[in-house]
Amino acid sequence: MRGAAEPARSAVGKLDPSERLLRSCRGEAVDRPPVWLMRQAGRYLPEYRKLREGVSFLEMCRDVERAVEVSLQPIRLVGSEAVILFSDIFTPIPEMGVEVDFRPGPTIADPIRSLEQVEKLRVPDPRESTPFVFEILRVLRAELASERVPLLGFAGAPFTLAAYLVEGKGSKDFGTLKRMMYAAPEVLRALQSRLTEMVVGYLNAQIEAGAQVVQLFDTWAGLLAPAEYREWVLPVHTEIAARLDRDRAPLILYVNNGAHVLDEMLESGADVLSLDWRVDVAEAAQRVGDRASLQGNLDPCALHQSREQIFASVRRIAEAARPARGHILNLGHGCLPDTPVEGVRAFTDAARALAEERPCGA
Ligand code: CP3
Description:
Elements: H1 17-26, H2 46-52, H3 57-62, H4 64-78, E1 83-84, E2 100-102, E3 106-108, H5 115-119, H6 126-129, H7 131-145, E4 151-156, H8 158-167, H9 175-183, H10 185-208, E5 213-218, H11 226-232, H12 234-243, E6 251-255, H13 262-267, E7 272-274, H14 281-288, E8 293-298, H15 307-320, E9 327-331, H16 341-357
Parallel strand pairs: 1-4, 4-5, 5-6, 6-7, 7-8, 8-9
Antiparallel strand pairs: 2-3
Helix pairs in contact: 4-7, 8-9, 8-10, 9-10, 10-12, 15-16
The chain binds coproporphyrinogen III.
Coproporphyrinogen III is lined by residues 38-43, 52, 57, 84, 86-89, 102, 104-106, 154, 156, 160, 170, 217, 219, 256, 334.
């Protein structure tokens, strides 16, 4: 049941953070929007940089104790109301048989360009190939249960993972990937299909280990025109949404630069659409109505504003999102290394202030 008969976001008493997030994902009544930030753990926090000293990023992701500590930092330090597993979209890739390095972006030693290379990719049981991911989730869930703070898992979407695997590194336009799409579609199709198998198994194992919500990051799918997105990306999102254990964990779909594919995002069946800052929230909220919840969408650079300006921006976004069945306050993309800690704190405080400014049901 998704509470379809309930009037969207009507009056309820004060909720705990877990209920607030889960109810917002499903479009049930809440007291105010929940708040967390993409890339909330990272280099903008001095406490993160201290723990990172002398350890590579990949080591950090595999070190359960450090990863748990870093995942929890944003709760204490900036007042975030959800914890996301500290990891990267590339964590499961080495075990598929691909060498990955971070400099600091992912770099692939031997980029994938042929069907032979795709066929060599393994899809191992994630519980055996990346056991530390699930251990981190189990420890986090145990630590968060008493505070009733929700835990999110995540994965990179096949198109975005394929973009790096084919290109070999980050790029502005991913020309090699796009060339493959037009000149050797069978290779990209086979690659996405293998990555889809990996992502489905990996996210379901995260749900089993305690993730209460999962987010799929498709950072580069917005490079495509609507027709190509419909052919190459929508079927993949739809398949993933259909094969996840969503009775236990709703799915948030993030597409960066996706203003032109909002209808396609909606068609995937994801519970929440996470918007970047280029999207007009009022328009998106009208469009999705009671069919999906929204997440977003402050420009991460707007955290350089004054506290008062950040409060005003948050009020504006929350107001614009009201026609959607639910709304999770977040950024339009991840926190940047130069993001001011004070700005992040103002952002989460502004979400809490919404409850005071707008009495329930007003
Ligand atoms: O949101 C969170 O707090 C959870 C952690 C998280 C990281 N990466 C940690 C990270 C998540 C959800 C990601 C996702 C990710 N990683 C995406 C999809 C979302 C997006 O941002 O578009 C992508 C494309 C990547 C690939 C990636 N990883 C890049 C391009 C980089 C380098 C650029 C950068 O900002 O550093 C990374 C490294 C990375 N991933 C860091 C962190 C904290 C920095 C590593 C360091 O400490 O040096």
